[in-house]
Design brief:
Layout (H helix, E strand, L loop, with lengths): L42 H16 L21 H6 L14 E6 L3 H16 L3 E2 L8 E6 L4 H20 L8 E6 H5 L1 H7 L5 E3 L7 H9 L4 E3 L22 E5 L1 E2 L10 H4 L4 E2 L2 H13 L4 E5 L7 E2 L28 E2 H9 L6 E5 L8 H9 L6 E3 L7 H7 L5 H14 L4 E8 L6 H14 L3 E6 L7 H5 L6 H24 L5 E9 L6 E6 L4 E5 L3 E2 L7 E2 L6 E6 L5 E4 L15
Parallel strand pairs: 1-2, 1-3, 3-4, 4-5, 5-6, 7-10, 10-13, 14-15, 15-16
Antiparallel strand pairs: 8-9, 11-12, 17-18, 17-22, 18-19, 20-21, 22-23
Protein name: Mitochondrial tRNA methylthiotransferase CDK5RAP1
Cofactor: [4Fe-4S] cluster
GO biological process, one term: regulation of protein metabolic process
């Protein structure tokens, strides 16, 4: 929303030299002359008047004549200092002035990272952070639009916050409510105009503008910026990481998506793919390592399609390699540093720091990525492999770029190169045109692969998507729910088998903190991203050592799973990072 200054504060924007004050220079037939009406001026007089007019136009005022304080013989040079000095907003205008902001984050890990970016920007402007809604001057909801249920959660929360805002005493600073992220871009009209529940809207690419938007809101106006960018990666913004216990952190490496799957809203809420420069990613990971962070998860909507073309030497003519049997809806890209190059450099920063990544697309797993995961001890042997459906017909309608057979071939190749790898996946039940046979093919795929973690949902049509424009949401809601429950049931059966195979094995677990189930237990995650709960007890500092020490978040412990589901905990050797030899970087 444009910012309007009160009329009394306006000052002249330019000074006009005396010689350029308005002069009447109008064709002869339109002004009154001293000649008698109906008389005709001599031809020479007309020519002289026309020549005078052309002379004035050709030697008219330049830009410098309209800029205040610039001499007639000096052309102003634009620079940041000049722009700041003469900006239409004062330097103090967008400062937080110790206002307290409360964030509520919903949805995926990218939204967690977006929260950290937004907080970094506001913190530099003098805002303070609070988790207490009662003392918050600003409440910002970082939102998700991937499914209807996620959006409904936000609508319900906005009603609650609006009621709280109205109850607040008039002697207090009025609470401002803001929506950040995907929902801001997708539902801007409904949020600002129809429902009028929010004061500020900022899309995923507009977080730099938050201080100004909040300043406008504090002035009593609604403010919005939901423009998408082809370049914004926030590469120069160092997120303020707020992970619990400080032992893990998310690092965004790319934004947006080019895959255009027919069911997905992401390309329309987060824009096209663009990758953050390698140098800025490495700088952030080094900083996290220095802070004692023990696990970093690289983030992106299609994280393994990472392609940095910011460096001149990286602009080669090599085409991007896809998984065998996979294709894209866009022309094959070429040049740039690929995901394998980034993963290689990140894993070398700190051998004691675990590296994970999410969310990948199955098409972007060439052998070089898989071989690197197998070679590097600190790259977790766990891969998220979203299938979405087990039916080739449904996959075609989804525009996923592969068949059931190609997907199973990829699974076989992954397990051949990375023995013991853990796999997780996403599935959608009840997509447009899905038949009972299609559904049973999905059930059989879940059984055949055997995932240890899964994310399963009923299909929810989204506006703007290819499916919205071209397909019919023809599977009844009750059928979707039945199919979803059947998928969940089969998945749990197979996951139980996968997890049962871990009995008797020794797992390297990164301790995250106290278990939510019991204060006498700790919890952590294995290399395969399996959650492990074990007793809180002191363990030997070194093997066969009588000295013991308590286990703390950020520690690695070796946990042996017994047949009776109990565990034995051992602290690993100081140089024993994993249960195999480490590959040198």
């Amino acid at each position: 929303m444009p910012f309007v200054l009160p009329l009394r504060t306006l000052k002249p924007f330019f000074l006009i030299p005396q010689q350029w004050l308005p002069r009447r220079c109008i064709p002869h037939r339109y002004y009154c002359s001293k000649l008698a009406s109906g008389s005709v001026a001599p031809k020479k007089t007309k020519e002289a008047t026309l020549h005078k007019f052309k002379s004035q136009i050709s030697s008219g005022p330049s830009l410098q004549d309209f800029v205040r304080g610039v001499s007639d013989n000096k052309i102003p040079v634009f620079n940041e200092e000049y722009a700041e000095k003469h900006a239409y907003l004062s330097e103090e205008y967008d400062m937080g002035k110790a206002r307290k902001v409360c964030f509520e984050t919903y949805g995926c890990q990218m939204n967690v990272n977006d929260t950290e970016i937004a907080w970094s920007i506001l913190q530099k402007k003098g805002y303070q952070r609070t988790n207490d809604l009662n003392e918050a001057d600003v409440v910002l909801l970082v939102t998700c639009s991937i499914r209807e249920k996620a959006e409904q959660t936000i609508w319900n929360r906005l009603q609650q916050l609006t009621a709280m805002k109205r109850r607040r005493s008039k002697t207090c600073v009025p609470m401002k409510i803001g929506i950040l992220g995907c929902m801001a871009e997708r539902l801007k009209t409904e949020l600002l105009e129809r429902e009028k529940l929010v004061d500020v809207l900022a899309g995923p690419d507009a977080y730099r503008d938050l201080p100004r938007l909040l300043a406008v809101a504090h002035g009593g106006h609604q403010a919005s910026n939901v423009l998408l960018s082809l370049e914004e990666t926030y590469a120069d913004v160092m997120p303020v990481h707020v992970a619990s216990q400080g032992c893990s952190a998310f690092v965004s490496i790319m934004r947006g998506c080019d895959n255009m799957c027919s069911y997905c809203i992401v390309p329309f809420t987060r824009g096209r793919e663009r990758s953050r420069p390698v140098s800025s990613i490495l700088e952030e990971v080094r900083m996290l390592s220095d802070q004692g962070v023990r696990e970093v998860t690289l983030l992106g909507q299609n994280v393994n399609s990472y392609r940095d073309t910011s460096e001149e030497q990286s602009c080669s003519s090599n085409l991007t390699q896809l998984s065998r049997g996979f294709r894209t809806v866009y022309r094959t890209k070429q040049g740039g540093l690929r995901f394998a190059d980034l993963l290689d450099q990140v894993s070398c920063i700190d051998p004691n720091m675990r590296i994970r990544f999410t969310s990948p697309h199955p098409k972007d797993f060439p052998d070089e990525v898989l071989q690197l995961i197998e070679e590097r001890a600190n790259i977790c042997k766990q891969i998220h492999l979203p299938a979405q459906s087990g039916s080739s017909q449904v996959l075609k309608a989804m525009r996923r770029g592969y068949t059931r057979e190609a997907y199973l071939d990829l699974v076989e190749n992954i397990r051949r190169i990375i023995p013991g790898v853990s796999l997780s996946s996403d599935f959608i039940s009840g997509f447009c045109g899905e038949t009972e046979d299609d559904h049973h093919q999905t059930l059989s795929l879940i059984r055949e692969v055997g995932y240890n973690v899964g994310f399963l949902f009923a299909y929810s049509m989204r506006n703007k998507t290819h499916a919205f424009h071209k397909l019919q949401d023809d599977v009844p809601a009750e059928v979707k729910q039945r199919r979803l429950q059947e998928c969940i049931s089969v998945f749990r059966e197979e996951a139980l088998k996968v997890n049962a195979s871990l009995i008797g094995s020794t797992q390297l677990v990164l301790v995250e903190g106290e278990s939510k189930r019991s204060a006498s237990d700790l919890c952590g995650r294995s290399d395969g991203n399996v959650k492990v709960i074990f007793p809180k007890e002191d363990v030997a500092v070194q093997p066969a050592d009588v000295n013991t020490a308590p286990v703390s978040p950020g520690d690695y412990v070796l946990v042996k799973v017994r047949v009776d589901h109990s565990v034995k905990i051992v602290r690993p050797h100081e140089n024993m990072r994993v249960l195999k030899d480490s590959h040198s970087c």
